[in-house]
Design goal:
Length: 394
């Protein structure tokens, strides 16, 4: 969703995006677009973006610092304006997340970068990027997105080797193609972009949020409940759904719907290993760890993407969980029940994990720093209330 909003920078006419969630990260993207001169409206779940005659080229630090995905404005801003001035992106503290692959790739496409501790000054001599063969040393989602957008209107052909394969990459490419780009191979490790002179606007429906779906499934599982998730894309959850079946949940998967019935006591999960798509997504690890806290037996978690992704474990332990962490490894041994407590959300997915745990805990759980959760979930409390949960948001 967020890179598609960034990609609106490339369009010479209006864009309408359907199924846009009301989350604060979308609000942050909208503020950046407006700062750059775009007219943006967000009504219900539709965002309409109208480009200006002349686009700005500078994003202030207070806007960049609000989310990690703000770095995806760099590629399209260079492509449209020929230069960009922005600061390092913000977002959740999950360990080092350098942007050197983004910058190296853009330099191969003709950009010149001056980097200080707090600021990036980038420009394209001649005003237009050119195609290049980009070999990413790691299939970074953000770097793939930035190159994809920068290459859409670059001169010549760009190849992205070892590209990220996530569904969000496919969705971004589908949007760009709807606007007139010529991109093939999205969803594979080799993407080819044939640059076109310009992109126009389009009407586009954004893909469902697979991490939100995994979170709601975990919430149903920990309560021994039964629910149907409607408007999902089950194939995006191929690495997640087997774990719910493994612990005893009954799943009925249809075209755009997943029905789940959870047992009264969840069976063992055994092992959860995160990785780049199509492996188990790192963003789904925290809610699944909350679920593992009440599964029978121990679950081993191996986190291979981020170095500091177990910060929610300490808060879960305050709720009576039995989690031991060491480096990239964690073992959650299931307990009979959790206890309500006052616990802080330290990042987006960790905060959602604490809400999931609170559903299974006796007494009242208060999750503070709720602004983290609002970055990626639209009305999490309200959605859970539709499933008869006793949840409020203040």
């Amino acid at each position: 969703m967020l890179p598609i909003l960034s990609a609106c920078l490339l369009c010479q006419s209006g864009v309408t995006l359907a199924r846009c969630p009301r989350i604060t990260d979308v609000d942050a993207c909208v503020r950046i677009l407006r700062h750059l001169g775009f007219r943006v409206t967000h009504r219900q779940h539709t965002v309409a973006v109208t480009p200006p005659a002349l686009c700005g080229n500078e994003i202030p630090a207070e806007l960049m610092s609000q989310m990690r995905s703000s770095i995806t404005f760099l590629g399209p801003l260079l492509a449209r304006a020929g230069e960009a001035a922005l600061s390092q992106p913000g977002g959740c503290a999950l360990g080092p997340r350098p942007i050197d692959m983004h910058l190296d790739a853009l330099c191969q496409m003709g950009a010149q970068v001056e980097q200080t501790r707090h600021r990036l000054l980038c420009r394209v001599p001649g005003g237009r990027l050119h195609g290049a063969a980009i070999h990413l040393r790691f299939p970074s989602v953000g770097a793939t997105e930035n190159v994809l957008m920068a290459a859409a209107t670059a001169k010549g052909v760009t190849q992205i080797i070892n590209a990220a394969r996530e569904p969000e990459i496919e969705d971004l490419a589908a949007f760009l193609n709807a606007c007139g780009a010529n991109i093939t191979g999205a969803g594979t490790s080799a993407i080819t972009v044939y640059g076109v002179p310009a992109l126009q606007g389009a009407h586009f429906t954004v893909m469902p949020d697979r991490i939100a779906a995994a979170t709601y499934l975990a919430a149903v599982a920990v309560t021994g409940g039964e629910a149907a998730l409607v408007g999902v894309e089950p194939r995006h959850l191929d690495a997640v759904l087997p774990l719910f079946r493994q612990c005893g949940c009954k799943l009925q998967v249809e075209r755009d719907q997943i029905r789940m019935r959870a047992p009264r006591r969840l069976g063992a999960l055994k092992t959860v290993v995160t990785g780049v798509y199509p492996a188990f997504p790192t963003d789904a690890q925290p809610p699944l760890m909350a679920m593992a806290c009440v599964c029978a037996g121990p679950t081993l978690f191996a986190e291979t993407v981020f170095s500091d992704r177990f910060r929610h474990a300490q808060a879960l332990n305050r709720m009576g969980a039995a989690i031991q962490t060491r480096g990239k490894w964690a073992v959650a041994t299931g307990v009979d029940h959790l206890l309500g407590a006052r616990v802080p959300a330290l990042d987006l997915r960790g905060g959602a994990a604490l809400v999931v745990a609170g559903l299974a805990a006796g007494g009242e759980t208060v999750v503070t720093n709720g602004h983290y959760i609002q970055r990626g979930y639209e009305d999490l409390a309200g959605c859970l209330r539709t499933l008869q949960a006793d949840v409020t948001c203040e």
